[in-house]
Structures are given as C-alpha cells and as structure tokens.
Amino acid sequence: MYKSSSLTIGSSNFYHLWQERQHSKPIDRLIWFLEFLEMPAELTDDQEELQRLLAAFHPDLAPHDRFWKQLVQTIQQAFPQNSLDQAGLRNRQVHQLRYLISTQQAQYIRRHFRDPGMTDRQALARYLKGRFYTLWDRGRLHQKLSLVEGKRSYPDNQASVNLKVLYRQRVEFILDSQGRFLNILDPEGSTEAGIINGASFNYGGFCRHKDLDIAPIGRHDPRFRRKKLRGYRSPSKKRWGSDDRSFWSTQGPYSQAGRSLAGLVKDQARDFRRLVRKS
Question: Where is the composition biased (Polar residues) (predicted)?
C-alpha cells in the first residue's frame, strides 16, 4: 500500500509518531518502524516492490536528516554486541534495510541535485559542497571481480575503479568509473555491478562496524545478491609480500595498466575532491 506523503518516513506526522515511541524499548520501537515501512521478510530485485518501499519515504528526507542518527542509535541499542548476525526475521529485515536506505539516499541526491545531463558523481559533488565527507576508506570490499583459472571477469563485463564516499560515518555512496551510483537496489535499473559492489548504510560506525555491518552479511544477505556474488572476490588487504591478488599489487588481476587498484582509487578520490570544490 502506498502511503500519503503526509504520513511517510521523514514527514512531520511520522516524526510525531516516532517521538511518541522514544521511551519504549528499542526493539519495540524498531519493530514498529519495520511494520510502518511494511518491510518484507526478504528483499528481492523486483522493481515494483522497490518502488512501493521507496514510496514509504518522504521525498525530502535527506541523508543529513536527524532521523538517521536516531535510527542508528535504536538499532545499536536493540542489538547488543554480536547479536545482529544471529538467526531471526527481525535480524534479517534490519540487515537488509541497510540496502534500502542507501537506495533512498541515492535517490534523494538524484532528485534534488542532478540536473539533466549530469552524472550521479556530479550531483553528489554538488550535495557535498560545504559538508564534511571522507574518502579515507578506499572501498576495497567494493572492488570485487571474478577470477577463474587466472582470468578476471568484471561485473557487467566492464572494468571499473569504484570510489567509496562516506558521510557522517553512516551514509555511504559508491561511484563507478562512469560516475554512476552503485546500489544493490536501483529504481533506475539494476546492474550486476550494483548488486555485487553496491553501497550499504552503516549502523556500526567505527566502534561496531564489524558486528553490525559486516558479520550479518553471510547469514542475512538477500538470496538474489548471494547468487550474484558466487565466484566474486574482493582484493586482499595484504600490503607486503608476493600476493598478486592484493589491493596494492601493481601486477596482479586487480591492477590496471601497471597501476595498483589502491593507487587508482587514490586518483579517483583526488579528482572527486576537485569536483566538489568546483561545484
């Protein structure tokens, strides 16, 4: 069911209902939110379902809105250390919610900052002008490719150097070499690269990133993504030695034209900073 814009997540009416529940148990508040959203037991790549879910969010709900911090605090309280990766319907819904939030936030950028003819990259740079964002995480885990008998294969058969942009430690944007957002769910068209290397909203921040954002992936990722991920691997993080599959290797399968993937991402980050300054 599509909700009226006056009662969508981020609207004033929604905030009133959300604030009424601030003194309830975090897990009860979270269950109420999932039911308000009508979050399915399992996300799929069905575009009609995605449109229904996105319609539950107010079109002006921005990545910098205070609601996201409140939601993160609720999730951290509802799921103590090392509990989100345990079996359970709510655990799976909360984990998969990260992908939906990233899609909603990318759509906000497209709707409010992307003029005709602009790329997602240019729109994001316009949004981040004057805001504090970080590029220190080079997105090693968002650079997956398939290696079969030494032969490399990129998602969608298109080589890319993907850039990870982090805002407020929670909001994550992944851009491919063509300047397009990579998201696991995308109303503008699902791609193999987006499903495999796409963004996900972060619940854990620096302190709980592993147990809230990484550990649940193995058990709770959507089935359609797990199927696509078969055979794809991220570069290793080993910096020294003879590991040619390293993120830092200049000769291995993750390198391009004698440059390490880490070095290529550094170049992308430099160019993006310049674009933000010029926006």
Answer: 247-256
